[in-house]
Amino acid sequence: MKEGYFMEHKYDEDCIFCKIIKGEIPSYTVYEDDDVKAFLDISQGTPGHTLVIPKTHVPDIFAYDSELAATVFSKIPKIANALKASNPAIIGMNIVNNNGKVAYQSVFHSHFHLVPRYSDHDDFKMIFKDNSAQYDEEQLTKLTNQIKAQF
């Protein structure tokens, strides 16, 4: 896909991110092109916490097609590198995408959180429970085959 690919924009009149895209609500924009907008998250989980959104309304990752995914995902490294270059104290970054209420999605316009990391003690935590003892080879093979069958 060529740089600057322009997708047809669709908006949801009730969506806060669509309103930000259209300039109806102000934002602290750090990057914008024809297809993507990146702006500071007002929560600032850590300094520089940025949201990356497509400029067309899609509720979550399940609504992406391969073209939209290529367009949006290709901008994330560029924005992440700009964040890192803006502050030499950044030593890592969490890139998070929540899909559905149960997965902590609070705005139903797909978005990616770029959360700069400064230390092990910078007030941002992601905790995953290790359930490996609950799965044997048979269960893992069954899960693998269920997923593979969908391609």
Commentary on this structure:
The chain is α+β, with helices and mostly antiparallel strands. It has 4 helices and 5 strands, in the order H-E-E-E-H-H-E-E-H. The chain has a 5-stranded antiparallel sheet with strand order 1-2-3-5-4, with helices on one face. It is globular, with a radius of gyration of 18 Å. It starts with 15 loop residues before the first helix and ends with a helix. 18% of the residues are buried.
Strand content: 15-25%
Please give the largest β-sheet: 5 strands, antiparallel
CATH class category name: Alpha Beta
Examine the secondary-structure arrangement and name the CATH architecture.
2-Layer Sandwich
Total domains: 1
By secondary-structure content and strand pairing, the structural class works out as alpha+beta
Which strand order does the major sheet show? 1-2-3-5-4
What is the distance, rounded to the nearest whole angstrom, between the alpha carbons of the first and last residues? Answer: 23 Å
Mean pLDDT: 93
Domain HIT: 16-126
GO molecular function, one term: catalytic activity
Protein name: HIT domain-containing protein
InterPro entries: HINT, Histidine_triad_CS, Histidine_triad_HIT, HIT-like, HIT-like_sf
